[in-house]
């Protein structure tokens, strides 16, 4: 099983430790992991802003860079969703099947569904509150969406439960949007911040020391509010917890 490690541009620039933790975690499971050099943006910001031609050129570049891998795995639910859902349309004129739903995974979904570990030699003696990102819940199935009235499940909770000494909680209205939404946070900044603060306060109400989740973008948005208002909680990507001690 040959894995191409995809590190989104904003993770590489702002949260490089998440990329390092992702590599360590995948290697810990004995997987053949390669990090293709000179990776760029997957094209999601350009596509969301209406610049489809710019997004197409980036999609084409990424499709070529990750050719030959059995799986493409990255620590970002939103980027994984963009590749899975939009590359087939952006690259519809290519003579081969582009990166698609059979190949691209968010790292949490990949570990939970493909690797299926029964134990993990990691310890994190802290109380953490799970943040369920919109893309992760509703497009990747990382947890159960409340509006569908289906039995509860959470792949993030399942993975965290393998970590020793951890206490796991979830906030009231666990799958409500934090307000980031990419371009939304720029175009509707006041609404975005209000939603983010509401979300952070629900996490704080659990008594957690950390907010954790599968999307650094959501965590970044909430961390900005936490830092600006000096609130008593921190953020940490789930792979940083899972890779503790590796």
Mean pLDDT: 92
Helix content estimate:
40-55%
C-alpha termini separation: 21 Å
How many helices?
12
In a nutshell, what does this entry contain?
The protein is α/β, with parallel strands linked by helices.
Topology:
Blueprint: E1 2-5, H1 9-14, H2 16-28, E2 32-34, H3 44-48, H4 52-65, E3 71-74, H5 77-90, E4 104-106, H6 107-115, E5 127-131, H7 134-138, H8 155-160, E6 167-169, H9 183-187, H10 189-205, E7 210-213, H11 216-229, E8 234-237, H12 238-242
Parallel strand pairs: 1-2, 1-3, 3-4, 5-6, 5-7, 7-8
Helix pairs in contact: 10-11
Question: Which structural traits does this protein have?
Answer:
246 residues, alpha/beta, 4-stranded parallel β-sheet
Question: Can you offer a commentary on this structure?
Answer:
There is one protein chain. The protein is of the alpha/beta class. Helices cover 46% and strands 12% of the residues. It contains twelve helices and eight strands. It has helices spanning 9-14, 16-28, 44-48, 52-65, 77-90, 107-115, 134-138, 155-160, 183-187, 189-205, 216-229, 238-242, and strands at 2-5, 32-34, 71-74, 104-106, 127-131, 167-169, 210-213, 234-237. The protein has a four-stranded parallel sheet with strand order 2-1-3-4, with helices on both faces. Helix 10 crosses helix 11 (216-229). The longest helix has 17 residues, at 189-205. The two termini are 21 Å apart. The mean pLDDT is 92.
């Amino acid at each position: 099983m040959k894995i191409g490690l995809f590190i989104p541009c904003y993770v590489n620039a702002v949260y490089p430790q998440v990329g390092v933790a992702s590599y360590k975690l995948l290697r810990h499971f004995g997987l053949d992991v390669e990090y293709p050099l000179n990776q760029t943006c997957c094209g999601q910001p350009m596509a969301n802003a209406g610049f489809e031609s710019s997004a197409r050129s980036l999609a084409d570049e990424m499709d070529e860079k990750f050719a030959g891998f059995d799986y493409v795995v990255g620590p970002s639910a939103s980027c994984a969703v963009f590749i899975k859902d939009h590359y087939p349309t952006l690259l519809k004129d290519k003579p081969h099947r582009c990166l698609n739903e059979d190949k691209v995974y968010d790292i949490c979904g990949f570990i939970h569904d493909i690797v299926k570990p029964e134990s993990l030699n990691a310890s994190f003696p802290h109380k953490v509150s799970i943040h369920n990102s919109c893309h992760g819940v509703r497009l990747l199935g990382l947890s159960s969406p409340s509006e569908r009235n289906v039995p509860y499940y959470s792949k993030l909770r399942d993975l965290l439960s393998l970590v020793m000494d951890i206490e796991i909680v979830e906030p009231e209205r666990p799958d409500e949007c934090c307000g980031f939404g990419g371009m939304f946070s720029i175009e509707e900044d006041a609404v975005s911040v209000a939603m983010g603060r509401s979300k952070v306060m629900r996490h704080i109400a659990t008594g957690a020391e950390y907010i954790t989740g599968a999307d650094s973008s959501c965590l970044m948005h909430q961390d900005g509010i936490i830092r600006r208002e000096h609130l008593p909680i921190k953020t940490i990507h789930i792979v940083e917890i899972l890779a503790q001690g590796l």
